[in-house]
Design brief:
Blueprint (H helix, E strand, L loop, with lengths): L7 H14 L31 H8 L8 H4 L6 H6 L8 H37 L5 H32 L2 H11 L2
Helix pairs in contact: 1-6, 2-5, 5-6
Length: about 180
C-alpha cells in the first residue's frame, strides 16, 4: 500500500474553497436549511459537488477568490487593484504598461491553472459518483486537487510579489490606505 503525504498548506487550500460554497446563512443569522434538511440539500445536482457555479466561473476567469490574502493584507498589492487605483496612486505610463502586462500574464496562468483545479475536483467527484472511491483512489485524487489548488494560489501570490518591484514605497502606502488597510 502506498502512503501519500499532503503538505498541510495544500490540504487547507483544497478544502477551503469547497467549504465556502457549502455554508449558507441568511442575513438574520439563521442557517438556510430547515431542521429536516442538510445545509447541502440541493447541491447534489451540481456537476461537481464541491464547486458552485460561481466558483467554477471564478476559476475559469482567473479571479483571485481571496487566494492572495496573505500578500494583499500584508502590503503586497495585486495587479488588478493597482490598475483600478492607477490614477490615485499616481502610476507612471511605464508602470501602467508593466502592470497591464503582469495582469495579463497572471490571468493567462490563472485561467489555465483554474481549469486544472476544476478537472481535479471533477475526477474526485467522479470517484464517488461511479462508486469507485477507495482509500487509495481518494488519497490520490485529493492530493491532486490540493496540488492544483496550491499551484493556482501560488500564481496569484507570485504576481503580488512582482508588483512590489513595480511600485514605489509611497505608491504602496497610498494603495494600502485607499484599500482600507
Amino acid at each position: 500500500m502506498k502512503t501519500f503525504l499532503i503538505h498541510p498548506a495544500l490540504l487547507i487550500a483544497s478544502v477551503s474553497m469547497p467549504a465556502v460554497a457549502q455554508h449558507h446563512v441568511h442575513s438574520d443569522g439563521h442557517h438556510a436549511a430547515s431542521a429536516e434538511h442538510s445545509p447541502y440539500a440541493g447541491m447534489q445536482s451540481r456537476p461537481i459537488k464541491a464547486l458552485s457555479e460561481q466558483q467554477i466561473n471564478g476559476l475559469r476567469s482567473g479571479k483571485g477568490m481571496a487566494m492572495a490574502m496573505p500578500a494583499e493584507l500584508n502590503g503586497y498589492p495585486g495587479p488588478l487593484h493597482v490598475l483600478e487605483l492607477a490614477p490615485k496612486i499616481k502610476l507612471s505610463d511605464d508602470q501602467v504598461a508593466l502592470t497591464k502586462k503582469l495582469y495579463s500574464e497572471m490571468q493567462a496562468e490563472a485561467k489555465a491553472a483554474g481549469e486544472k483545479v476544476i478537472e481535479a475536483e471533477r475526477e474526485l467527484d467522479s470517484l464517488f459518483a461511479h462508486k469507485k472511491a477507495s482509500a487509495e483512489t481518494v488519497a490520490v485524487a485529493v492530493s491532486r486537487a490540493a496540488n492544483e489548488q496550491g499551484k493556482l494560489r501560488e500564481i496569484h501570490l507570485r504576481y503580488h510579489l512582482r508588483m512590489i518591484d513595480a511600485l514605489t514605497p509611497e505608491q504602496i502606502a497610498s494603495y494600502n490606505k485607499l484599500r482600507g488597510y
